Amino acid sequence: MHMPRLEFPEVLVMEILSKLPVRSLTRFNCVCKYWCSSFQTPHFISKHHHYNLENNNLNLFLSRCDGNTFQTYFSQLSTEKDQNYVVKQNIHLPFFKDDDPSVYGACHGVLCLLDPSTDKAAIWNPSTREFKVLPPSSIQRPPYFSPFEETYLTLDYVSFNHAAFGFDSKTDDYKVIRFVNLTFVNTEEEHPHPHFMDQVELYSLRSNSWKEIPSPDYTPTFGTLGNNYVDGICYWKTETGEYLDFRGLILSFDMGNEKFSILPIPEFVGCFPEYYVHLLVFNGSLGAIVYPSERIDTSFDLWVTSEGVWTKQFNIKSISGVVHPLGFGKNGDLFLRDTNDEVLLFDASTQELKQLEINTYLDHFRFAISLHAYLESLVRINGIQEDEKYIIRQPTRDASNEYRI
């Protein structure tokens, strides 16, 4: 006797599937055409993303540099082993061969990678393994006329820094903004004095092109940890004033109206340059990690803003040997780098500092380590699958330097 076939309503089936990881959904694409097409609808993609957002299903990877090959690797972290962070696998992007790309994002689970010394840029969804190379900039670099030397100068060097990646909800478009620094010299002089000019470029995924936008009066400074995008707005730290009289400001850019604004950094920060200030995203809000610049035993304050009001989330008392914060993982755990260039974890629940068993054979240039957190996402970026051309996956090694998969 055959048991009656039990059928679930399609709405319930899609509700269940929206809670599964991307890897499972990718395998289920071959179950039937209806499932495959449903996974690509904006409704399902949004539902899947919001489930991961509500459950704080963060994924983490470290950007690291191999001291032998000078290539950048992305080491995906996992907590599957003994509930501690270990390197699950290393990913290398040959498109950035011999380059050192910086990572910006994540927005809806998608990251942006840019090399500051070249025009190379790409958008990457590490969950679907979709990878899109951005076109080179078509913006003109005008000649620079020096009134002091009364002649036009030659463009000598171009650098791309202080970028951000975000989403414009008004036009349903992903955008990349980057600051471009142009260096001009008088080639007729034996020891020419450089002259600098800034541009700002904005990329649209919808049009797949770059355009120049007006530059703000302030230039961002370094001091962003991983992600500087929150709800349609990108943020950078900037400064004004002279040495010992610096005044900290926050430069913001609205992806929707494509306008810059200036916000004050509250007085809790302390005086520059006695304190470091790093902007970052914490639990979906703009935050700032503040710590003294010249102490071996360092304490950290985390401040978070909501509707313009800054509130101290917590203070981590003096930690001996810690020199630099890397960013936050799940449940408010803070990743740190110590004086021995090892990666540590401050457990927010137990207030304990743990040394992680993370493979360090890549980290001959450990000062280049950065931490990036993202949510799994099905967002399509009109690229290609990374494993076809752009990704070489490397086996990790354990403490005995034996390779393992």
From TrEMBL:
<dbReference type="InterPro" id="IPR036047">
    <property type="entry name" value="F-box-like_dom_sf"/>
</dbReference>
<dbReference type="Pfam" id="PF07734">
    <property type="entry name" value="FBA_1"/>
</dbReference>
<dbReference type="InterPro" id="IPR006527">
    <property type="entry name" value="F-box-assoc_dom_typ1"/>
</dbReference>
<feature type="domain" description="F-box associated beta-propeller type 1">
    <location>
        <begin position="93"/>
        <end position="381"/>
    </location>
</feature>
<protein>
    <recommendedName>
        <fullName>F-box domain-containing protein</fullName>
    </recommendedName>
</protein>
<dbReference type="InterPro" id="IPR050796">
    <property type="entry name" value="SCF_F-box_component"/>
</dbReference>
<dbReference type="InterPro" id="IPR001810">
    <property type="entry name" value="F-box_dom"/>
</dbReference>
<dbReference type="Pfam" id="PF00646">
    <property type="entry name" value="F-box"/>
</dbReference>
<feature type="domain" description="F-box">
    <location>
        <begin position="7"/>
        <end position="45"/>
    </location>
</feature>
<dbReference type="InterPro" id="IPR017451">
    <property type="entry name" value="F-box-assoc_interact_dom"/>
</dbReference>
